[in-house]
Amino acid sequence: MAVVAQNGGRPSPAAPAAIELRGISKAFGSVQANRDIHLRVERGTIHGIIGENGAGKSTLMSILYGFYKPDSGEILVNGQPLTITDSQTAIRAGIGMVFQHFKLVQNFTVLENIILGVEDGRLLRPSLSKARGVLRRLAQEYELNVDPDETIEELSVGHQQRVEILKALYRQADILILDEPTGVLTPAEADHLFRILEGLRAEGKTIILITHKLREIMEITDTVSVMRRGEMVASVKTAETSPEQLAELMVGRKVLLNVQKAPAQPGKPILEIRNLRMVDDSGVERLRGIDLDIRAGEILGIAGVSGNGQTQLLEILGGYPEKGSTVSGEVRVNGTPLALSGAGCNAAERRRNGLGHIPEDRQAEGLIMDFAAWENVAFGYHDAPEYGRGPLMDRDAIRRDAEGKIRRFDVRPPTCDLAARNFSGGNQQKIVVAREIERNPDLLLIGQPTRGVDIGAIEFIHKRIVELRDAGKAILLVSVELDEIMSLSDRIAVMFDGRIMGERLPQNATVGDLGLLMAGVDPATAAPGDGIPPSQKHLEDLPRDH
Amino acid sequence: MDKMPKWADVILTPLISLVLAMAISALVILAIGESPMVALTTMIDGALGSSYGWGFTLYYATNFIFTGLAVMVAYHASLFNIGGEGQAAMGGLGVALVLLSLPLPHWALALPAAMIGAALFGAAWALIPAWLQARRGSHIVITTIMFNFIAAAALNYILVNLLRPTGSMDPASARFPDATHLPKLSDMALALGFEWGKNTPVNISFFVAVAACVLVWLLIWRTRLGFEIRAFGKSEPAALYAGINPVRITMIAMLVSGGLAGMMAINNVMGEAERLVLNAVEGAGFIGIAVALMGRNHPLGVFLAALLFGFLYQGGGELALWTTIPRELIIVIQALVILFTGALDNMVRMPLERMFLAMRKRGA
Amino acid sequence: EPALIFDLGGKFDKSFNEAAYMGAQRWADETGGTYKELEMQSEAQREQALRRLAETGANPIVMTGFAFGDVLNQVAPDYPDTKFAIIDMVVEQPNVQSIVFTEEQGSYLAGIMAAMASKSGTVGFIGGMDIPLIHKFECGFAQGFKAAKPDGKVLVNYTGTTPAAWNDPVKGGELAKAQISQGADVIYAAAGGTGIGILQAAADEGILSVGVDSNQNHLHPGKVLTSMVKRVDNAVYDAFKNGVEPGVKVMDLKAEGVDVAIDDNNKALVTPEMQAAVDEARAKIASGEVTVHDYMTDNTCPVQ
Amino acid sequence: MDLNTVLQILDSAVRLMTPLLLACLAGLYSERAGVFDIGLEGKMLMSAFSAATVAALTGNVWLGLCAGLSGALLLSAIHGIASITFRGNQLISGVAINFLASGLTVLLGQKIFGLGGRTPSLTPGAELEAQVTPFRAWLSGTAGPDTAGWLTGTPRFGEIALPFAESLRGVPLIGPLYAEVISGHSILVYVAFLMVPLTWWVLYRTRFGLRLRAVGENPASVDTAGVSVTRLRFAAVAIAGLLCGLAGAYLATGLSAGFVKEMTAGRGFIALAALIFAKWRPWGALGATFLFGLLEAIANRYPNLDLGIVTVPSMFMNALPYILTVIILAGFVGRAIPPRAGGEPYVKER
Ligand SMILES: Nc1ncnc2c1ncn2[C@@H]1O[C@H](COP(=O)(O)OP(=O)(O)OP(=O)(O)O)[C@@H](O)[C@H]1O
Ligand SMILES: Nc1ncnc2c1ncn2[C@@H]1O[C@H](COP(=O)(O)OP(=O)(O)OP(=O)(O)O)[C@@H](O)[C@H]1O
Ligand SMILES: [Mg+2]
Ligand SMILES: [Mg+2]
């Protein structure tokens, strides 16, 4: 390791650092989340922090922001020691934070969220009108456009993140912490974000960026720190390191950053979709005639900005279309048509017939967070004959099965009694992937397989998906990560506004080409599109069926 | 990753909470000018000091087990069934109708028949709120509250106008036939050759209640249906993803819940009163909420909590019967026990956790 | 040592348990004797209480309320040497005295007074829980009222169907106001603690009310027309003092078991004609010339 | 049914809905801040008792009101400590508070007055004199003779005739409506009705309201904004206590004249139902509680509905408000979505 671990205590140079942490430790019960952390972030730089899931990155930043109290250690802001007891202190010291899980009030408007906690007086009206003005200025200055009167739940994730950034800027943050900001963004949105961050840096603001994506680290940061198991293992200048080296520092072993796969050997068609349409319960048409085929031994990747109907497509194929929606069209699996509504349309039934489904949201759908790992391994397959007799479940059989899966998928910690909640995001995902892949489904639906997952786990999950393909199964992969789509898929379809905009082969596709399709522009016809997914448009603008 | 050993969490915490509740109760007793020592010994003596006291304690506990289990089962499907009171009342009606209309020659036949009647009526009374929740999204808390009132009115009408023998002052049904009288635990003890709990109402229903605990435990933690109920209760979107039908689970959970609440009637109506009286449930449905929550929604916990409340009920009853302490003191004591063991448990747990953590650190 | 058992309503129910308590207390004051008393907490305790008292040698044992009937029927044979008395219910056992009151007769008198005091010709009756016993009050009241004012009108309300119906003065007051707005100017309250609210509302609105069970004339002097007193206190006092004589003891008008209370608080409201009419009715009932129908016998009331 | 009957029913509905409305708004503050409160019943009962007790002892209803507010606040504090400070189960805490109030009121009442849990009647008379005289004597003994004059108030809230009620009576429709329905209630009724716009204004137009709503939806958002979740929730729970206090005081010293055990008779639960019905909104609360009041008033007015062929028995009419509630709920009010963080204690560190 050619990297010099710089563990604090070194004499400060002339200009005080924007942030200096000295010996920060924090334990949650018996878990040591941060252990004697030293960190120095120079003013006017972008500082990256990387580390595996659960390494303690979010905890460290939450301490800096006053959300958690450290057990010991010292914080210096602009050279001044500061006791940060709550977020108010941090805000006053010019620290702003965009959390990994946004801290927004879903049914409040953007404006209300912005002023929450920094209102100018007891009455709202003056604060609101002032904020409206400031917001307009900020929006122009940083190209952060959001409708101030829209409620959060109507915004796409990307826009929600803008609100979080605006919140920090409105509080006049000098030091901005972003915790995995790009996990939910499209490449274009991420690029936009980075342009903003660069602008902020140019103004002399300091930025701390947590991410799992080494490409981003290399692209934008000035310095980078690596955390492992609660400790700070290295801080280096970005220019002096490489992705391979960082990955190794992070995981503690060599990591393959590219998917290794042989060319596909497509077989007979497994999934055939013809003219699939879906109208949701408020009358908006979310799918506008989808036609797709997937063959055995092939991965079809669906690229697209989230909110363009991918979720609805996965739900319909998974057997649980949105409540109150009407679905029409034809879907065949292995030649047999699927019921698209009524009693035959049932996720359990689909599973029995050889469908696997890794859902987009593992915490809300894929797992019961309070169930133990072994119970989650049976979740969705709890009716399977090998898991019990008659109405009774055979716990021993399930546990045996779960232990095997956990071992084979390297879930950490390898205990099947721990509640899903207490695994890190990456390991939660491994449990879901193990459950769905190991059943050898003829058709596997996958939504966002690696969102928020660290590179070690990504490598592992990708390998398993490719193995399943090579075993001759059909795979439908939905992801907002273009990198992931391009490296995993055998064919790429791009979805926009409930339609398939076009199909490409990965070897012929370019990011620019796909990006245009994702924005609703067909390069062939060059029909202009506004690039805004429908969920952000006013619903009235959309054509209705009845 | 536990902060403290399981035994400390499961046994030490409630025990200390209980002691705290009793200490405050003692202060209340002092404040109204009575002696806490006398009160405590009267209660313990009256409820646990003799087979006689135990007979009553177990009788009340039987009621609370049924209503506690009822609340618990619904709770696992994240349905808050406040309607135990009405469902138990309707269960009583089911028992009365079965026993008064069918010529059942022996209790061994009458008991299963009455159980079916009780469970059916209780379940039926839970069915409408369940359906409204599943299909129309009407909040189950409101509808079950309303159904308690409606049950009271319906029962009042039925008892006064339909089931009451003419000329009787008492708005109560006729007595059930002698052949259907359930064996009391005291009779069973006598048959085994010793005297236990003479003239106490505890009867064979107690064993039914214990069996119900076991069955409910099996249902919730050992069957596929129970798995679905718990999964649905924890996360509805996940249940949908897994192919669990929300309507079906809501209905089943509420039917089981209502059936359990209704089954309480085999204890109080069939076993004790041997006829249906007005207000036979006497608030057991509401105590079931406390029992389920205190029992941490586990049948064993429900059983223990029901025993505790049976003890409080009987001990308190004795207190009011044989001392000058007003009977409302019991309600205060119950309130304090619920408060300290159910809601203020962290007040005890947090320092304990810190203690154990410190101990472990020193040990390590 | 005699014993007294109160029903679930409790010793201070503002109604007949309280009256029983007064009777026992009077006996204790007069004789200096002591007695045991018990308040029921739950249905299941009835048998327990009876047996425990019998076993500790209490004699006689007096209990209030029809709800004891069934249990007493079972328990009494086990203690042939103990004498029991039950109020408001007939239990046919050789060692049990059943004390029943002719509430319909007392209510009849109250009905006559209400009819004569009413200017509007409309009076009200508010019962507690909707149970047969209370219909007995209602029916007697209506008969008396109709006897004096054949074309008058009796409005009838019941507070509820749960035991809360006995303790809801707010609802009682509201029912009284509803009846007042329909023209009632005398309201008869047979509703335990709820009655307090009814009498209050009547006094607030400036109309008359009729109390029940014990003498409630003093609650709002000059505003309570009378109270239909049910001398449970006398019955208990008697049982304690003179012992219990198995059989049915009917506490009717003649035996001064029921009556309308006239004292300093309502003297001004009772006109001489009213007094005369009441006296006449009382005599006629005593002589059997007038019979007041008892709702309990056939669950119907001859007048509406 | 003539106009007069309608007016009388409306008048009755206004009285009946007032305690429900106050309790419902109490629940609204608490639950909007993320603290579920099924202890409304207990707090009302406690307040009714304290208000009646102090009013009976001092002969002054305003002191009674203060006592009522304090009584309810005390229980609120317990709820707050249990469910906010110690992150206990809010439902259990509420159940405990209901039991506590139901027991304590009778226990204390019996200790103070010896009337079996009842307080003396608050109408001027012998019963009240017996209580008030010693207190006034004691007061003038300790604080000087002329201080007894402070307490010349009434022991009960009287009815307030609004200006021009009588002179406007002649105006068709509006006149009688004003005179019969709107005028002639106790001051607490007007307070309750004013609470509706006030609550709306506080909730949607003030900083406090914004933060309160936020803390019930996503407490972490408030916490990361540097505002204390604990303090906000305590404030909300305290407001709930005050409103329950008003409701209880109205029951005992406005609508009736004294305390009777269990006199709240389930109104706290009905208020809870109304709150869900109202979807946790102030104007909705007004509508929902009015509906409940109206249904009860109608049932009171028509105890035996004679439909010609059959007479609907009184038991049915008594249950009618509840039956109608279920029907309305099933038919007209869709799914009610409670505040997202409701019922969950705010825990930063799992
Ligand atoms: N609220 C909490 N309660 C208890 N333990 C926690 C909590 N948050 C974090 N931890 C512990 O702290 C450790 C560090 O967690 P943290 O969330 O900081 O990791 P991370 O590096 O941000 O992971 P990720 O990449 O998944 O976001 C975890 O392993 C966990 O054991
Ligand atoms: N109560 C707990 N006890 C012990 N460890 C815990 C507990 N809760 C969480 N953890 C640990 O927290 C770590 C991260 O959990 P966390 O919930 O922060 O994941 P996450 O940050 O949401 O994941 P992702 O980054 O994928 O979104 C895991 O290592 C897990 O073991
Ligand atoms: Mg994380
Ligand atoms: Mg993190």
From TrEMBL, chain A:
PROSITE patterns: ABC_TRANSPORTER_1, ABC_TRANSPORTER_2. The keyword Magnesium does not apply. Keywords: ATP-binding, Nucleotide-binding. Signal peptide: none annotated. It holds the Pfam family ABC_tran. Residues 537-546 have a biased composition (Basic and acidic residues). Residues 525-546 are annotated as: Disordered. SMART domains: AAA (SM00382). Residues 19-254, 271-522 form the ABC transporter domain. One of its GO terms (molecular function) is ATP binding. It comes from the Bacteria. PANTHER family: CARBOHYDRATE TRANSPORT ATP-BINDING PROTEIN MG119-RELATED (PTHR43790), GUANOSINE IMPORT ATP-BINDING PROTEIN NUPO (PTHR43790:SF4). This is ABC transporter ATP-binding protein. It comes from Paracoccus benzoatiresistens.
From TrEMBL, chain B:
InterPro entries: ABC_transp_permease (IPR001851). It comes from the Bacteria. Keywords: Cell membrane, Membrane, Transmembrane, Transmembrane helix. It holds the Pfam family BPD_transp_2. It is found in: Cell membrane. The chain crosses the membrane at residues 12-32, 52-75, 110-128, 140-160, 202-221, 249-270, 276-295, 302-323, 329-352. The keyword Transferase does not apply. This is ABC transporter permease. Its main location: membrane. It is a multi-pass membrane protein. It comes from Paracoccus benzoatiresistens.
UniProtKB/TrEMBL annotation, chain D:
InterPro entries: ABC_transp_permease. It comes from the Bacteria. It is a multi-pass membrane protein. The chain crosses the membrane at residues 12-30, 51-78, 90-109, 187-204, 234-260, 280-299, 319-338. Pfam families: BPD_transp_2 (PF02653). Keywords: Cell membrane, Membrane, Transmembrane, Transmembrane helix. It is found in: Cell membrane. This is ABC transporter permease.
